[in-house]
Amino acid sequence: MTGVIITILIVAAVIVALILLRPDRKGQEAQPPRRMFTMETSKDLTPVEIQPSVPALVPELPESYNDTRVVLMVRDPEWIFAYWEINDNHWESLIRRHGEPIASRDNVTLRVFELSGEMRYFDINVGGMARDWHIRVGKSQTPFYCHLGLKHGGEFIPLAVSNTVVTPRDSLSHLFDEEWMLVNDHEQRLLKRLGNFPLDLTSPFMYRKEG
Amino acid sequence: MEKGLVCLVLHAHLPYVRHPEGEEYLEERWLYEGITETYVPILQMLEKLAADDIDFRITISLSPPLISMLQDELVMKKYRRHLESLMELAALEVERTRNTPEFNYTARLYKKRYHSIHRMIFDENGGNILNAFRKLLTTGRVELITSCATHGYLPLIGLQDEIVRAQVAVGVELFRQVFGRKPRGIWLPECGYKPGHDYILREFGLRYFFTDTHGVMYASRRPKYGVYAPIYCPSGVAAFGRDTETSRQVWSSKEGYPGDPDYREFYRDIGYDLDYDYIKDFLPHGIRVDTGLKYYRITGNTEHKEPYQPDWANEKAALHAGNFMFNRQHQLEYLAELMDRKPLIVAPYDAELFGHWWFEGPDFLNYFFRKTAYDQKTYRMVTPSEYLEMYPINQVSVPNASSWGHKGYNEVWLEKSNDWIYRHLHKAGERMINLANQNRDAHGLKARALNQAARELLLAQSSDWAFIMKSGTMVDYAVRRTKTHLHNFTRLFYAISEDRYDEPWLEQLESENNIFPKINYRVFSSDYRGTVG
User: Residue A25: its chain B contacts at CB < 8 A?
Assistant: First the structure.
């Protein structure tokens, strides 16, 4: 009985050893190229993400540039994007002037103005750690700008004004009137001869289409 | 007399991936693959067309980073080694597959192809592919245009006009240096247009650019001819809008030609398929990557792939070219009825689609040009310049802010994965403008530092990094490039501001990031203007 157990154990040990010691495929001696290409497997077919051959040190960029500013960018006809920062000294002076409850990071707010008609605006509380925001404006071909400020109760203290952006159009224009222009090399040569001719002040080369 | 016109445009661009610090750098393979699979096959095809006196027209934009790499001695030396290793691999493959005729035929084609590429670049053109482009220019059938300095996505990096102007100025100037003439048109990176940028293009004598369909269709005044004629921006620069049918026929995953079962399967490459020990010497650092040798055809929507049959694929390319021509004839006949001038179809594509992604793409183009010349009379091919000479009067309207990226606007380059870069790019841009304004007459070390600062900023602005961050593969590389160039810029900014220079470090940067050796940092100054002519 003991002999049988020992035999089983030995066989098991040999099997385990064989499994453990099985040489890694990739570690084997070079195999002769296979003749039957059709038999090849594709074990590594899934493309692997390739690591750069020379791992280099990646420098970190500064958290802020010590500015107080807000910048708007256009994403598409429905969305714009804002990023901002508030200078540390500016914060301290805000705290001195308005006190902690008002000059709090939690009160940082973007007031987004629609630069058309009655200058409507809406506020987004972006308090906390946020430094940028994707803003849904939902309105194509409309100019927007924003104030970065502190909103506390009904009060809004503006800190910075952004640039103005215009959302793109997402449909055909309803303006049908046609204006036509002639541009050719002859004209270009003429202009060159004229030197710094103020092109935008007049449009001598524009032609309205007849009829 | 023809009824319509077709303008085919290829935009060739790769990010600046020159890495002198390593012998084998994975990202450099993007360029190697571009040369072997796209640029040279297309050049060879066009040379043959010219030799056969086929009346073809093609417009090719060569991005400044691509031009810079193609004329860089180190890059081309490394490419030569790469190509020679491919030739060696192809020879081994011919031997290995000698008893399997279904693969051997293809293996022999690869061997022949690599030899012919080697001969074309290093024997016929002295190692400089741009020489082949120069020769093609003399045929009058190829119009070459430029793109922005580092393919910066203008609607997002161009917070200040100075930044847009510098990107354009450097692209135009490099083109002039390389081809001895000013470009007549420009490929706005990713077709990214923002109203007003056309005034800057005009300063440089650029007559036209391209937009996606909705760039022209959604213009401020409804375009009378749709995208079948260009419109003039108020600046007088023409915007050519992309035709939808021609892009769908090539790009659509359902209807597109490149997905045909007879065409070569991109995702079965011996770099992944073959036994590791056999292939490892041909892999960079032993990492499995695409080698370019692929033996299967698409076969169908199945894991199982059949061997590639080059002759079938070639016939399919001819068939598709015929179909493409036929569709253009019908499209133009229809449009001609509706218009009081010849309708124009503008068909722009990424050059790398042809050959790299769609292996048979250059054959398709070859057949398309030949069939167009001989098998039909409905249309003829034109370049944008020829069109504008033919029709110098066009409707005036402001194109819509747009791009040819996914969803048509700026989202690809401005979303969660990449929106963080702009705060830094804008700040660096602002600093560069100030540096240029405050140092009008810098010379010596200071001028060198200013020029290098300009290079680092431009390299950081490349649209490719934001795109790669969004695409999700090789993200680390794109992040590293963005951060490194910005970091280098910032260090230079402080050095220049304090007038204290670390010359060895500057020298190292100049040799590592050596794009635009003749750059003049003054292109960033606020009073810099392009000059027409």
Answer: 276
B 69-108 residues with CB below 8 A of A? Answer: 92, 95-97, 99-100, 102-103
Task: List, run by run, the mean pLDDT of 10-residue segments along chain A (211 residues).
Answer: 59 53 37 32 36 66 95 98 96 93 94 89 94 97 96 95 96 90 68 46 33 28
Name the residue facing B272 among A45, A74, A188 (closest C-beta): A45
Q: What are B501-526's pLDDT values in tens digits? A: 999 999 999 999 999 999 999 999 99
Residues of A in contact with B221 (CB under 8 A): 173, 175-179
With an 8 Å Cβ cutoff, is B529 touching chain A?
A: no
- Residue B340 confidence class, pLDDT cut points 50, 70, 90: very high
pLDDT above 60 for B14: yes
Mutate to test the interface with B, among A43, A50, A131 (most CBs of B within 10 A): A50
**Residue with tokens 């040990």, as numbered in its chain:** A13
Gap between the Cα atoms of A114 and A80, Å rounded: 12
- Complex prediction ipTM: 0.94
Per-residue pLDDT tens digits for B115-151? 999 999 999 999 999 999 999 999 999 999 999 999 9
Name the residue of chain A whose CA is nearest to B99's CA: A35
By Cβ distance, the residue of A29, A83, A183 closest to B236 is A183
CATH annotation of B415-524: 1.20.1430.10
Q: What one-character DSSP code corresponds to residue B3?
A: S
At residue B168 the predicted structure's pLDDT band, cuts being 50, 70 and 90, is very high
pLDDT one-digit tens code per residue, B292-301: 999 999 999 8
Distance from CA of B532 to the nearest CA of A (A): 7
Distances (CA, A) of B488 to B58, B351, B446, B450: 39, 32, 15, 12
Q: Is the dihedral of CA B367, B368, B369, B371 positive or negative?
A: positive
What pLDDT digit, counting tens, does each position of B209-241 carry?
Answer: 999 999 999 999 999 999 999 999 999 999 999
For residue A192, the model assigns a pLDDT of: 57
Among B443, B434, B440, smallest CA distance to B494 is for B434
- Please report, for chain B, the start and end positions of each structural domain, with discontinuous segments joined by +: 4-260+340-407, 415-524
Q: What is the amino acid identity at position A121? A: Y
Class of domain B4-260+340-407: alpha beta
Nearest to B403 by CA among B86, B168, B189: B189
Q: What is the pLDDT of residue B407?
A: 94
Question: Per-domain residue ranges for chain A?
Answer: 69-166
CB atoms within 10 A of CB B254: 6
Distance CA(B132)–CA(B40), nearest Å, equals 9
Min Cα–Cα distance to chain B from A42, Å = 5
B396·A79 Cβ contact <8 A: no
Q: Which residues of chain B does A40 touch, with a Cβ-Cβ cutoff of 8 Å?
A: 273-275
CA pair distance B366, B48, nearest whole angstrom: 9
In whole angstroms, how far apart are CA B198 and each of B64, B161, B232?
A: 19, 11, 10
Is residue B443's pLDDT more than 50? yes
A78 contacts A167 by C-beta, under 8 angstroms: yes
Q: Choose among A28, A85, A173: nearest Cβ to B219.
A: A173
Cβ–Cβ of A174/B222 closer than 8 Å?
yes
Q: In this structure, which topology does domain A69-166 adopt according to CATH?
A: Immunoglobulin-like (2.60.40)
In this model, does residue B19 exceed pLDDT 60?
Answer: yes
* B:107-166 residues touching chain A, CB 8 A cutoff: 155-156, 159
- Reduced to 3 states (helix: H, G, I; strand: E, B; else coil), residue A111 is strand
Of B273, B407, B408, the CB nearest to A40: B273
| Residue B196 to chain A, least CA–CA distance (Å) | 12
Positive or negative, the CA dihedral B118, B122, B125, B129 is: positive
